[in-house]
Design brief:
Keywords: Transferase. This protein is an alpha/beta fold. It starts with a strand and ends with a helix. Helices cover 51% and strands 10% of the residues. Strands 1, 2, 3, 4, 5 and 6 form a six-stranded mixed β-sheet that branches. Helix 1 packs antiparallel against helix 11 and helix 8 packs parallel to helix 14. It has two domains: 191 residues, Rossmann fold, CATH 3.40.50; 114 residues.
Length: 314
Amino acid sequence: MFGFRGKVVVPVFIGGTGRSGTTILGDLLNEHSRVRTSNPTEVKFLANRGGFLDVVFGSLNAQPISREKVSIFHYRTYRKRVQKEVSLRRNRFEEFSTKLWHKWWEIDAPAPHGPGLHAGIEKRDLQRLLEKYSQDIKKNPIQQARKFMKSFIKLQKGGKREKFWAETTPMNISYSHRLIELFPEAKFIVIRRDPRDVIASLLTKDWGPNTALEGVEWIESRLRADHEALQSVPPNQVLFVTLEDLVMNSPQDSYNKILNFLQLQDEPAMRAFHTSNMTVENASSGRWRKEIDTPEFGEAIDQMNLRLGRDKII
């Protein structure tokens, strides 16, 4: 949470397994006068492999190093450790900067994967932010990262001093334990979808699993990572919704849950978007029946649900 000229801006991180409705939920919230969804809706550089959170905290896949706490009175040991940590952070930052300009600045793809960061911020502004962070990289990493993101959000085009800034990178939930350190007042909305439909959608992409059974493993891994990360987030700052409830099973109740979670009043534009765009047809509910309804797939899904239920993940 941070203030722009006395105005408090609260990040709302929307996420899930991917192909679960994150984008359309961000579009829904963007219709409210007190919410601005990022442009592009997925900035990608924050909660992604090799992204900004990995610069600040280290790779998500890296094994944590167990170290004894070093007193500042053991100055040489303390100084060497700090210097090593700064050096590693600088190396990660240089790799991140290269990736940002080559992978995330311009993306030749439709939303949510495109169009890239250039749609929402001037290049010179982002260059200044990166230069400032590089200059201050020896300082407190969390404080500097928070300043970077505060300025990034402020400099994005189209802002009108809304209370909330929403962002829809699916990996937000797997990174929620890190995001909550940067933004202690952040809100998290986890949107889930029938995993069978998620897998059917993933199989049409060139970046996900190649088979339906690989998709089951992929989904289970993501759900477990999300569950583990969310243990660090206060329960009252997390909302779970499902795409099926939002468009089919209990659309009004789910819609109201979102408003109540963010303490927003209903508005005609947002309600009209929900009614017109969040439909069963647009959600492609049940598509898996035509595309991957095999006994092997059904058995794999049943076993996954048993494991996740046993571990109290679903």
